[in-house]
Amino acid sequence: MPVEKFRFVSPGIQTAEIDRTARAEPAPRIGPVIIGRARSGPGMVPVRVQTREDLIKIFGDPVPGAGGGDVWREGSTTAPTYGMYAADAFMRNSGPLTYVRLLGENSDNASSAAGASAGWNVENAYGLFLFDAVSSSASTNAATGSLSAVFYTVSQSAGAPSVTVLSSSYNASNALIGAEAGSNSLEFKVAISNYKGDTTSALTATINFDRNSDKYIRKVLNTNPEFTNSEYYADSRRLNYWVGETYESSVSDTFGGLSTTDNTTFAATAILAQGTNKHSNRQYEANKARTGYIVHQDLENAASYDPLSLTKLFRFESLHNRGVWDTQNIKISIVDIKPSANPQSDPYGTFSVLIRSAADTDKNPVIYEQYNGLNLNPKSENYIARKIGDKYRTWVEADRRYTEKGIYPNVSAYVRVDVSNEVAEGTNPEYLPFGYYGPVKYHDFIAQGVSGSGTSTFSTAVNYLTSSYTTAAVAERAGANMTYAFTGSGAAFFGYTASAGSTYNGVDLVNWAGQLKVLYPAAPLRSNSTYVAFRENAYFGVNSLGIYTNKDKGYVDYHRLLANNVGSDPTASPSDGTAYSYIFTLDDLVQTTGSTSVTADTVVPMTASGHFNLNVAYVSGSRVAEKSVTKLGYAATAGTLSDAGAYRAILDAGYDQFTMPMVGGFDGFNIVNPEPFANKLIGSSETDDYAYFSLRKAIDTIRDPEVVEHNLVSIPGVVDTGITNLLIDMADDRRDTLAVIDIESDYQPRFELGTNVTDRETEPNVDTAVSSLKSRQLNSSYAACFYPYVQIVDRRTNLALFVPPSVAAIASMGYTDRVAAPWFAPAGFVRGGLSTGVTGLTVIGVSRVLRQRDRDKLYEQNINPIAQFPAEGVVVFGQKTLQATPSALDRINVRRLLIYVKKEISRIANSILFEQNVEATWNRFKSRAVPFLDSVKAGLGLEDFRFILDESTTTPDLVDRNILYARVLLKPAKAIEFIALDFEIFKSGASFDD
Q1: Burial degree of 967 (CB within 10 A; 0-12, 13-18, 19+)
Q2: CA-to-CA separations, 308 to 476, 484, 924, in angstroms, rounded
Q3: HSE of 629, CA atoms in CB hemisphere, 13 A
Q4: CA–CA dist 51, 42 (Å, integer)
Q5: What is the rounded CA–CA span in Å between residue 616 and residue 628?
Q6: End-to-end alpha-carbon separation of the chain, Å?
Q7: 452 CB contacts (<8 Å, ≥6 apart)?
Q8: Which residues is 810 bridged to in the sheet?
Q9: Of 103, 381, 613, 710, which one has the fewest beta carbons inside 10 Å?
């Protein structure tokens, strides 16, 4: 230290220590951003994960492709999720990592061009309707039936396919046909015309709704929409239809099971459409799942009870858009509902929230999250929005960024709370969550049969979404049969093309003037508590098991989005043509003896002596019929209840919980495309192509360095030049990340090829790849590319597949970061060897074995070869950036060194920002920066450096302008890429010293 710092008084020696070995504190690791599809997880937002376990928990395992099966219900696994392979490999060695899961979204200014809107739209949707018997003794009585299945058809050159029901002795004139005598009358023969691309012949098949039967509709008929895509399937292999929704539980509930031999059912098909509005049009962006609004208990007179007049309290919404996954996999229970114990001191009651697996059982619930002791008091610490969170993001397209709204930070990893204004502003403190609005569905209706002599006509132009069925609509609230559904009348529905005198089941079909009551299916609800081990533990509300003992795979079909014109919020108030599926409330529980088929008129007298032995059933309409427990109480309380406090009876009996679904989740993809982001599908404009818009938006979400930090970025598999240019531009703008892109003329998987290609792939073309990249005239040290695809083995399924070279490059960089440092070349046999599995990938080959001259061509154009050698296996054999100008920065290890050093020095500089611009502050800066650079030098990243910060850099003029200026002089260490060896041979007797 300077001599002036010593204190000399009398002669002597004084010493001081100056420690120059200080080590900089390790900075938080940054890691890459990977953009791609995934099985699950938040969509279109950057999600940072610290461990591989978190990555898989949130986004699911990588998909190897080659899947199939029931794509409608289970989702597509035909194309690999390349992004997840890159992320998985990197996280096996290093971390953290940020993943952006792609969903389908479109521009606010999307054009009318094909593909501009997210989602899908096909020719027609045919509904298959099943009905009970037509009565011969009372021709004016209504026969009741419901939609049981939906067939989607795709138009092609031979004509639009149609779906009809056939009798055993096929008669083309029959439009409404019953089952064969003596057989399962819920088994029907259907015909699909023009069902293949190369024929006009019809497919005929016998189907039923029993999933254990060989004739089960989803086993017999196609359920994969991808088979309708003429881009991928030649005429001889293409199908022009698929089976979408099937409602097995609804069919069973309507007909008392899935099998009967009484020959009293009949079936018909009709197009589900309203003019140009079609059920087959699902052109929606990716959509969040939601619950219906939760409503409170009835505090008024039961006889005047109207559930539609109840105050909406709150609902749950997916925290981030996970698409259909939330609808398929999550349900929410409200439990432990309690009135205030001391209304004088605290009038608000409490309740708890469970976020559960949709596949669990009430006996063994699988709980993802639990929030206890919540209330509706906005001033309370236990206020539901405060405890779970209500913030959400909205995308501002003009600014190309997210803005955050809401008040309370999100605690849940799955949902946010959407609290109504009535609750947020302070509502009746006695209100408790007591039920919820079910999702909207198409309007039920009663159709009048056509009467008169002669021939009547079966019409497929029935207006299923029409408002005409609602103009005379009334709620069925007559007596005890209240259903909260809506019906209307006055529209002709089924007539018959038959000769005069034709009959069916004893009824004159021509002159029949009866009614058909047409129901659209709603998800099954728990009907009673008798089969629960502890009755008070029964969760009323939605029953995700349906008629099964394990999850009803059709559960998701009840909760999908409807036609495009209906809207993207299936929990919104019904509009013309729609109605609530149901309105569930604990106010509609009645006391029973255990019967599973009760109505409000058949409720047994209240004789139970203890509330833990009380059997109850859900009967819609029992509150208004004054039959419910909340009106009458149970044995111990009968005659003591008033309407105002009656709700306590059912809670006191232990029935204080209910469950609701998450509805309307949607991925936004065109369901007929196995890979929605195939390069052949990506357009050139975000207004004309939803795939282009989605990819650009994903890039924009990570553009701002103050929002998302990253030092690598890649969209594996995307070679579209428009998108990869956007990625490089983003990296150039940030100047703190390396974009690893894939390029054209490489291996092409099946979903990139047309139907005229007989092979399943095309071999990479080195010459074309070189010329294509050269024509782009790229010049950036913040980008790099590799070539060609490599073949790996999926660790979970043992399937072999080809993955883009960017996946291998990201893997080798992750391994390099673990065993060395970012400034070491992620290439060569030590750190770029892919065959040993150390990089996180099990690589078994390449899509093209590169010869020496191939590697020379590629490297001269700054394309890094991935080579395969007989002994050493597959290895990354280059580390150039895409900088055209020769300099140290045309190498990946130097670029990554500079990204690392700049970021860490900037972190140190942040600690002195707004401090005094004086020498003491400069010294603080240097005392941390110099040791950091020393550590990089010691780690072989730098040959030497100088850090200059004094009056020669920060002059008085700069001080007056509030500027600190330092110079950091670096000599990066270079990697050995070329080794020259001279082997000199000497004759005998020669001296090596000559």
Answers
A1: exposed
A2: 13, 9, 68
A3: 31
A4: 17
A5: 9
A6: 55
A7: 510, 511
A8: none
A9: 381
The tens digit of pLDDT for each residue in 859-880 reads: 999 999 999 999 899 999 999 9
Query: From residue 211, how far is each of 468, 631, 740 by CA, in Å?
Result: 37, 41, 47
Residue whose token pair is 């009334």: 474
The predicted-structure confidence for 24-49, as pLDDT tens digits, reads as follows 555 678 999 999 999 999 999 999 99
Give the sheet arrangement for strand 294-296, strand by strand: 415-419, 312-318, 294-296, 433-437, 583-585
Q: State how far the Cα of 294 lies from the Cα of 310, in Å rounded to an integer.
A: 10
What ranges in 623-765 are assigned the alpha helix state H? Answer: 629-632, 647-652, 690-701, 721-734
What number is the average pLDDT over the span 573-587? 85
Pairing of strands 32-36, 712-714: parallel
Q: What is the CA radius of gyration of the chain?
A: 35
Distances (CA, A) of 108 to 111, 117, 366, 390: 9, 10, 39, 25
pLDDT at 574 over 50: yes
Cα(803)–Cα(749) distance, rounded to whole angstroms?
A: 9
In order, the DSSP letters of 335-358 are EEEE--S-TTT----EEEEEEEET
The answer to whether residues 514 and 447 touch, using CB atoms and an 8 Å cutoff, is no
CA atoms within 13 A on the CB side of 316: 28
Token pair 């009835």 in the structure block, residue: 298
Partners of 35 in beta bridges: 100
Give CA 751 to chain center in angstroms.
Answer: 21
What tens digit of pLDDT does each residue of 271-281 get? 787 767 889 99
- CATH architecture for the domain at 32-114+668-894: 3-Layer(aba) Sandwich (3.40)
* 207 contacts 151 by C-beta, under 8 angstroms: no
Residues, the chain: 994
Angle at 821 (CA atoms; ends 819, 827), nearest 5 degrees: 75
547 Cβ neighbours under 8 A, 6+ residues apart: 248, 249, 252, 253, 258, 524
- Give dist(CA 469, CA 951) in Å, integer: 85
Q: Give the three-class secondary structure for 207.
A: strand
Distance CA(587)–CA(621), nearest Å, equals 9
**Closest listed residue to residue 491, CA positions, set 445, 551, 454:** 445
Report the side by side order of strands in the sheet with 203-207.
Answer: 163-166, 188-192, 203-207
| Contact indicator for 414, 321 with CB cutoff of 8 Å | no
Q: How far apart are CA 875 and CA 892, in angstroms?
A: 16
Phi, psi of 61 (to 5 degrees): -70, 155
Contacts of 851 (CB under 8 A, 6+ apart): none
- DSSP-assigned states of every residue in 550-615: S--GGGGGGGS---GGG-S-TTSPP-TTEEES-EEEGGGEEEESS-SS--TTSPPP---SSGGG-E
How many Cβ atoms from other residues are within 10 Å of residue 172's Cβ? 9
Could you tell me if 589 and 627 are in contact, meaning their C-beta atoms sit under 8 angstroms apart? no
271-310 burial, b at 16+ Cβ within 10 Å, e below that, comes to: bbbbeebbbbbbbbbbbbbbbbbbbbbbeeebeebebeeb
Report the alpha-carbon distance of residue 959 to residue 918 in Å, rounded.
8
Instruction: Pick 107 or 303 by higher pLDDT.
Output: 107
- Least Cα distance to 332 among 350, 354, 348 occurs for 354
Q: Which residue has the higher pLDDT, 471 or 807?
A: 807
Contact call for residues 846 and 879 (beta carbons, < 8 A) = no
How far does CA 601 lie from the centroid of its chain?
44
Q: What is the structure's pLDDT at 468? A: 31
DSSP β-bridge partners for residue 589: 618
List the domain boundaries for the chain: 1-28+918-994, 32-114+668-894, 120-271+444-519, 294-441+524-598+656-661
- 3-state SS, residue 187: coil
At 540, list the tokens.
């009323």
